[in-house]
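hey
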């Protein structure tokens, strides 16, 4: 009986041991990159809309009221400084010029009569025939006649300027960008824009750059931009705004882009980077960065020698293609996860694959 009990107990213990083993869980597999110092060629990302230089996009307005009776150019035409662009109906202005000319002629004739009258009065006074008062009156008449001539000349000048303003001329050399008022439409003479002329030989790109990165940008740096339908074009940093926009924490950088071939157009969207001088620095692949609060990627998952994961916040520097400079948070030789590390909590053990 004791033998039966011992055998039963042994069998029971053996069955309990066999069924109680729990299988070991498979560890997540990740790919890593080793942090090392390398040559970083900074690329400060920029994007914006191409536009003519300040003062090189002009809307030519009508300064006299009337009806636009002629348009001399078409959109896309190249124009020179002073070239006629459009004309406002000018018949009333011509009448004003003719009237002013007649008034001037009358004033000149009256001036000649006043001089003759003064000469006669002075001779008669010298001969003792007339009184001194007559000479004074004649001299006053001459002064009034001279004033009338000047007034008529001024009126004629104003009328001539107004007549000349009836012809709208190009203030700059460039290309006709738009016809804003078609022939036959009236204008009020208060500077109503009629034709837009733009000089696109050189274009501007105004791009906001993060205040944390603008210190790496300087005037004269080269820029590479991609423009849809055109391809890669080069530019140069021409100016950096002295103030930070507090609402966006960005600084506007102005990039100058030559366009002698005329392939670029104002209003085209351009995206690219300002190229900085290469310098040694620690860097990690862009794929190693993990999104944080607000969508900003400033942390990585680090794998230690035991295969344990921990997360590390970084201070980042400039971008260089698919590499990001690390200013603080990592040291050379550490391993960062570049694939398979999303949502792994601290302390997770992982297998590193090639």
């Amino acid at each position: 009986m004791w033998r039966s009990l011992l055998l039963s107990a042994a069998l029971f213990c053996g069955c309990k041991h066999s069924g109680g083993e729990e299988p070991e869980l498979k560890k997540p597999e990740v790919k890593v990159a080793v942090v090392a110092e390398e040559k970083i060629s900074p690329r400060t990302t920029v994007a914006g809309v191409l536009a003519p230089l300040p003062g090189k996009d002009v809307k030519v307005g009508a300064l006299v009221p009337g009806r636009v009776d002629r348009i001399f150019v078409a959109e896309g035409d190249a124009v020179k400084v002073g070239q006629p662009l459009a004309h406002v109906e000018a018949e009333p202005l011509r009448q004003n010029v003719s009237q002013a000319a007649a008034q001037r002629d009358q004033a000149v004739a009256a001036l000649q009569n006043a001089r003759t009258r003064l000469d006669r009065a002075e001779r008669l006074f010298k001969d003792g025939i007339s009184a001194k008062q007559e000479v004074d009156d004649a001299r006053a008449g001459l002064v009034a006649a001279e004033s009338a001539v000047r007034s008529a000349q001024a009126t004629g000048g104003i009328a001539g300027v107004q007549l000349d303003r009836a012809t709208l001329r190009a203030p700059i050399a460039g290309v006709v960008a738009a016809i804003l008022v078609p022939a036959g439409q009236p204008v009020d003479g208060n500077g109503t824009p009629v034709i837009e002329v733009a000089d696109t030989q050189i274009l501007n790109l105004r791009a906001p750059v993060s205040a944390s990165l603008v210190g790496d940008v300087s005037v004269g740096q080269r820029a590479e931009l991609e423009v849809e339908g055109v391809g890669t074009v080069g530019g140069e940093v021409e100016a950096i705004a002295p103030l930070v926009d507090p609402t966006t924490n960005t600084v506007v950088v102005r990039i100058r882009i030559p366009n002698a071939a005329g392939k670029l157009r104002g209003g085209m969207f351009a995206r690219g980077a300002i190229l900085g001088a290469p310098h040694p620095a620690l860097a990690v692949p862009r794929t190693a960065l993990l999104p944080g609060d607000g969508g900003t990627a400033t942390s990585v998952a680090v794998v230690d020698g035991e295969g344990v994961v921990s997360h590390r916040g970084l201070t980042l520097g400039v971008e260089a293609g698919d590499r990001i400079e690390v200013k603080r948070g990592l040291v050379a030789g550490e391993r960062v996860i570049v694939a398979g590390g999303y949502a792994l909590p601290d302390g997770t053990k992982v297998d590193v694959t090639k």
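The domain at 91-165 is CATH 1.10.287 (Helix Hairpins). The longest strand covers residues 43-52.
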